[in-house]
Amino acid sequence: MKKYSIKALVSIGMLSSISYVLMLLNFPLPPFPNFLMIDFSDIPALIAALIFGPAAGVLVELFKNVLDYFMTGSATGVPVGHIANFVAGILFVLPTYYIYSKLKSKKGMTVALISGTAIMAVVMSVLNYFVIMPAYTLFLNMPAMDSPSLRAMIVTGILPFNILKGLLITAVFMLLFTRMGTWITSQQYKSA
Q1: Who's near 187: CB < 8 A, 6+ residues apart?
Q2: pTM, 2 dp
Q3: Are strands 37-38 and 27-28 parallel, antiparallel or unpaired?
Q4: N or C: lower Cβ tally within 10 Å for the chain?
Q5: Are 12 and 52 in contact (CB under 8 A)?
Q6: What are 36-90's pLDDT values in tens digits?
Q7: How many CA atoms lie within 13 A of 151 on its CB side?
């Protein structure tokens, strides 16, 4: 693993803190179930990945979720939702980073963000079907949903929610990237 400078470690810590605060500012969207919340906490992780590399993005996602778990807790007693958020963040940030590193342009960033959204939405739908929803029913001692009901909830709720969330993050990040793109690129060379 890459050794980070003190400046990089401090920056990752600060971006993790910002990401945690953004995670607290979550909100539901009316057509979706109340447990699905929109937040923009993946943006600092994406900035960390772009400047310091993919491991930095993963660290920001990890620290954000660990902070949130210890500060707010979990309805299940175990961090099922936090693990799901961590995995979703990684599934969004890493593909975006790797695609953008091949297509270094504003258009390349748009393609990277849309690809990251699609990958995150599809993989999270599969994980929700096989792992996350069964874990919630296990830890909350709820009766398990039958397969058609679970599949319907994922196809009509979770998949469109993740697509919409990714597109909202894409829109906000592109607004930032148009202003900060040159600075991010200059920071990449300084941290290399």
Answers
A1: 51
A2: 0.92
A3: antiparallel
A4: N
A5: yes
A6: 899 999 999 999 999 999 999 999 999 999 999 999 888 777 888 999 999 999 9
A7: 3
